[in-house]
Amino acid sequence: MANLPRLMPTHPRLFRARVLRAGRYTPSMHRVSVGGPDLHEFGFAGYDHWFRLFVPLPHQPDLSLPEIGGRDWYQPYLAVPAAERPHCANYTVAGFRVLDDGSAELDVDFVVHTNAAGELEGAAAVWACAARPGDQLALLDQGRIFDCPDDASEVIVVAEETGLPAVAGIARSLPRDVVGRIIQEVPTAADVRELDAPAGVAVTWVVREQVGDGHPVPGRGALAELRRHVPTDDQGYAFVVGESRLATEGRRHLHRAGLPKSRITFSGFWKHETRRPLPV
Fold first, then answer.
1. Of the ranges 43-47, 94-98, 159-163, 214-218, which one carries the lowest mean pLDDT score?
2. Is 259 exposed, middle or buried (0-12, 13-18, 19+ CB in 10 A)?
């Protein structure tokens, strides 16, 4: 992916939390809402604010974490024996609310992937779909990746479903006078929802079940739609995330179409061939 930008916190903070409620949000998304004693101090920055999620392994009744925090969290985490080390994955804040009593709630949306046998895949999604109120987790704040220049002539945002929480956050955080294009791919028509995007930002939904056999792989439909888009000029800004090929091929197309690499943020969250998450 592109280098982490200046918007990552200098001293990332760890927040311990518990599940408040969980349930299927759309056919392909499972939402878990969490709260914690100091979660109101989470400096939510909007856009694609993301974090590292820590959850217990299936055999662990409680979440046990080493002393981690800041940017040097990884080595202490790896020092924990694999059989005791909590699962770690990267997620975007799907929603953040400070309540009347001063406490805060944070929403996390998990993509529900299944294999050919219909079994749920992905350790984080398996945890989320089984989550119950009171279950423990922890969040390590990582800030934003979306970093649009002030002089951008247009904003182009492209993702498949793993990037949908980021895209929704970006859409509602953009200044209302911004113009541009959002291309969002989802598995089914029932996964389409209204985005709070500025009036000048056109939103195109690509529904994989309606595309047919030509684009069965996540991200291929969004990439095909992006390849039909030509940037207005070389002063735009693009944000392309999700499946690895969508991110890399999307960046290649935009650069060939005239957008400088410095104005393209791209991140491959996972590879379709293995369904394994990629490091950030």
1. 214-218
2. buried
